[in-house]
Structure formats: C-alpha cells, structure tokens
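Hi there,

I know you've been waiting on this one. I reran it after we fixed the sequence typo, so this is the corrected version. Both the input and the resulting structure follow.
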Amino acid sequence: MDAEIKNSILKTGTTILGIVCKDGVVMASDRQVTLGSSIVGKKNFVKTRQLNDYSLMSIAGQASDGQRLWKIIPAELKLKELRSKSRPTIKQAANLLASVSFSNIRQHSMIPSIVGSLFGGFNEDGSTELYTIGIDGTIDKVDDYDANVGSGMQYVYGLFERQYKKGLSIKEGVELAKEALKSSTQRDTASGYGFDIFTITKDGIKKVVEQTIEPDYKDDKPDKK
C-alpha cells in the first residue's frame, strides 16, 4: 500500500475493554481518534455503541470500518429476527459480527478493513455474555476480561492481572474499568480525552460513566508576592 494513502487512513489508537462480573458485564472505551500515528483527529469519538435493545459493541481499528459495522450488524440482526420470529442470542449475534469481520478483511481493497471488537449483551433469559472478535474474524467467549487489539491493551492487561478477581460485582467492575482507562490514557499516546463506561445486566444496558479529560496547566513555580 502506498505510504501516503496508508498515512491518511482514519485510525483509532484505542483502549477498549470488557469485564465479566457475577451479575453482568462492564464495557468501556476512551474517546481519542488518531490520524496516522501522530495527529489527534477527534477528541470525543464514543467507541462503545448500543446496537439495539440488548447488545453493545466496542471497536478498535479504522474508525470508518467500525462505523460501517455499527450500521450493518443491527440491521442484519433485525432481519434475522424477522425471518426466524425469535430474537438472536448474544452468541448468534457475536458469530454474525465475526463472520462479517472475516469477510471484510479478505475482500480485495486498496484500504483493507482492520477492526477488532468487543461484543456484549443479555439474552432473553437474563444471562449476559461477552465476546472478543479479532481483526481476522476470530471469535472467543470472554470469561474474565479482555482489551482486544487496542493500543492501550498492555496497560489494561497489566492492571487486570493484578486487580481482577472472579465474582466481581458490577459496581466493582465499573471501578476497575475506571482505573484501567486512567492507566492507559496516562501512558498510551493514542488513548485519551475521556471515556465512557456501560453496564449490561438482566435489567438492560446503562451508560453509567461519561467523563472528559481536559488538560490543566499549572505554574511550576508560582510568583511570590
């Protein structure tokens, strides 16, 4: 691929994460979008979106391809529901996303699709599930936590390895997500400017945290009077 075209692609150097709790799932992401590897393109891009009444999807990769998936997947799920006269399970929905991701990256294109994602939701019986889908369409069910392919994942994984415990409550999961996002946005140059945290339980999907990170300039040596 020509270097000029490659550098012009709108990409997300990203932190996305999902945490499995005893009473549901927590999903979260930062807001920064980078152009190439050195320019901040957007400061308020919400990377975790609710697709329908029962599912959430977070993206890491090319923003344009992620936005396309946000449009395609809920439409396909609705068609599937109308045809089968029953709501797809979260596993079925995640497999659909994995299949589309698999097909996208294998299409001949000057600019290939590169999107990793986290997909979570609740089933009709109230059970919740979280899946991670790789940029190549691989799919795995998450039993503890995941940060997919975002540039901030090493900082998130390092913290989770020390602080995650099986059987976390949703409230504890939200606090852990906050700490993980703060860690990645402090050290990962491609993550920042705020974050959004969602919960998934048998009662539905809620956005529980919405924060903006703003620079605060201080004098190192205040003037003495």
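Quick highlight: The longest strand covers residues 115-122.

Best,
R. S.
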